[in-house]
């Protein structure tokens, strides 16, 4: 059986460091865990994982919507984990549009935010925060205690049910608490039962299909105009 965990968050929020420190703090997890990094155009995180002795793969969406790319490939990722006899599969997603979230029903969902990214970031990050079970806040060692508590309040305004943990991605302080949480998720026996917690955007327009010309004459499909 494979325990699947989804980790999402804005670029450079510290997702990779948090995952590595968490795996290292959990006894025996390093050899029983695989990580799939989803990104848009490029990613160097696989090298970081490999250097730490963690098996990882990179999945680049290229010119496809990264959110749709993720949900179209998660079944294959699950099968990859089963073939390698991993007990844990962690997916890391960055560069998503903030309109979507890779979080799946009955699967532990984690969102990583940077304490330095701005006080309104939890509100702007959409369902990645709102639907997460756990919100990890990084770089909190660079702010005051009062600023940490204000940031926690802002996260809980968006998602009152989420556990908020502060983790130092460099020292690993706090990662053991996340490791304990990871040992709790339900085991997903196969990929056939996976369902998204939040639907993908319904928009499909000419630019999704490769159109580069600007102007209403070239816009087909679902479009919306701003009111100015």
UniProtKB/TrEMBL annotation:
GO molecular function terms noted in the UniProt entry: GTPase activity; nickel cation binding; zinc ion binding
Domain of life (superkingdom): Bacteria
InterPro entries, A to Z: CobW/HypB/UreG_nucleotide-bd (IPR003495), Hyd_mat_HypB (IPR004392), P-loop_NTPase (IPR027417)
Signal peptide: none
Stretches assigned to the CobW/HypB/UreG nucleotide-binding domain: 5-165
A single BP term in Gene Ontology: protein maturation
Name of the featured protein: Hydrogenase nickel incorporation protein HypB
Organism the protein comes from: Saccharicrinis fermentans DSM 9555 = JCM 21142
